[in-house]
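Hi, here's the filled form for the chain we discussed.

Project: internal
Contact: R.S.
Residues: 313
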Amino acid sequence: MNGYKKMMSGSAVMAISASSANAAAKMKLLAEITKAHLTLYVALSAVLGHVISMAGPGADTLVLGAGVWLLAAGAAVGNNIQDRTYDTHFVRTCNRILPRKKIAVNTAGALAAACSLAGLGILFLCFHQNLPWMLGILALVCYNGLYTPLKKKTVLAVLPGIVCGMLPPAIGWTAGIPETGDTGFQTIFLLMLVMGIWQVPHFLMLDARQMPLDVHSMAFPRLGRMWTITEHNIQVLLWTGLYSQAVFLFVIKGSLASDIFSIVLAGIALVLPVCMAIFPKWFLGRRAVPGFYAVNLSMLMFMTLGIVDHMLV
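And the returned structure, exactly as it came back:
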């Protein structure tokens, strides 16, 4: 009898473990197809725009962040659907969910529609202004309607991609514009400028990691074919320097109340391009992954400190 109980207990444990593993696998697939690492940046930039407008966070800030994340997640899934054939030709993307057929295209389409509509619904129903949901639609048009199809035809596709990346802070700002008082127009303009310029070195280093997998990939335009490695490194260094200057301008214009946070961000802005110039083999080049993560980490710190700064005001 005791043996039977132990066997049943062991079976229950195994069943729970299998269920947990299955749930974890599904969450991993969901995070991958919604590009959670990228959509988190989008949501944080919208939250930062909102707290700048309201001079501090509120419950509606969380609602705004959730709405923008859902909208960005829907756009990301849509991008995966649009790129499912394109992705098969490159080392970096050939193992994504749809090229591996781990999720049916119809299922992904339903997820994209649900997330996008939910995000737009939150922006439309929870905020009195019309600009947030209108800018949300514009972001979808720029990303899924322009950037994604155009990148297969021209390197100029990066332009609507940059515009799309500048819109989330504007969505957050317009969702929280107070009826009276200072709306912080200069601050939000500088924030959008920082977000726009940051995307250029981000895109350049991402493109450098887009290694061809087969001969068909040669049909697609890439910046990597336009420049030598040295020329590519110079472009990355130049745009990283411009991004750092934009961050520094954001700081010296008094956009942050905390002197400590201002010093930290100013330090990051000054050190990042200097490190790239001094240690090019580590930060630059075709496969300089540390440089890619350094630029992205600097943006994460920029947004996080900006949000926390306005929370403490």
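Let me know if anything looks off before we file it.
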